[in-house]
Amino acid sequence: MNELLIAGARRWGDAAPTDLAIRDGRIVALGAEARAQPAAATIDARGQLALPGFVDGHAHLDKTFWGEPWQPHRAGPTIADRIDNERRQMRELKLSPARQSARLLRHMVARGTTHARTHVDIGPDVGLAHLHGVMATRETHRGFIDLQIVAFPQTGVMRQPGTLDLLDAAVREGADAIGGIDPFAIDGDADGQLDGIFAIAARRGCELDIHLHERGEQGARSIGMICDRAQALGLAGKVALGHAFCLGELPPAVLEPLLARLAALDIAVMTHAPMGYLPFPPVRRLAEAGVRLFTGSDGVRDAWTPLNTGDLLERAYLIAYNSGFRDDAGLELALSMATFGGARVMRLRDYGLAAGCRADLVLVDAECAAEAVAAHPPRRLVLRHGRIVARDGAALLPQED
Ligand SMILES: [Zn+2]
Which of 132, 250, 304, 305 has its CA 20 to 30 A from that of 242? Predict the structure, then answer.
């Protein structure tokens, strides 16, 4: 006996609705074969679109103000201003990383996210406290969402002595990847930071996911140095870059050779299509060049910005909007970054809507994937490992304590 039959759902890419049979957390059969076996429960999808569960490849769950009183934005315009302001606000508000990450996770699950990679602040001022808080949330929410943790040196590496040891300890204690940040602009010692974090990754066998806000030629230099180390240490396919604003402003003579290196070393690039005053990677050009792309919410309602929402379908819309995409292929490319792109970065196995895949899926009122991006309509149903975790925009999780 199957546990669930979803009748009449239109899978991404299919012309006609089909039925999906679900058992043991997987899609076990489609169409007539799905109907051939009895099911304990049936959901009539009435032709709604089925998408694979969204993958938020770049979040900051530990620092959100979600669920707290509204905090007007107070930071100055530079990255350094924002870091200083964030540390001040975190001290004043005394937020619990465990409680805040749980609050935001509930919201993300309600919006259809079934997998997330979150960067967690590590540094001499906070030690491993944020890591421990988010690890506790990962444990209590294991039945609802899959979470990967990046040990993230928000305040810098070389300018904050002791950070490399803390990053190493974070991986020993359960972080899945090592982060980095603007090796020239934040640290002023690009070789020191990159050598340090790559050495940990090589020693611990973990992946790297590096924030890069550096602009223009400086950003290009950092990317080149990251490629050099990925190549030398045999870490092809194990490195991701977050933001990489510079890729949106380099002349073709500089950009094209960099894209060729990123593709050859299988280095993935994350953009959340930032606010209009910032450049960001030309995603269609990157895709054509064979560079892996993914997206994420980045900071949701935190000291960095009040605006991000943790809604990956809306994020796909923003990528399409800010990229100037109008055609279906462009809208679907944006959606692929919020689904299959992130799934590859998180190395999810059996991800998708084919028979045999894990039953992580979202139903929405849309005719096709392009319309889902354009309208980013409410999530009717969210299934994670075959279990209903959200319905009509509300997460079906235990109440917050
Ligand atoms: Zn970030």
Answer: 132
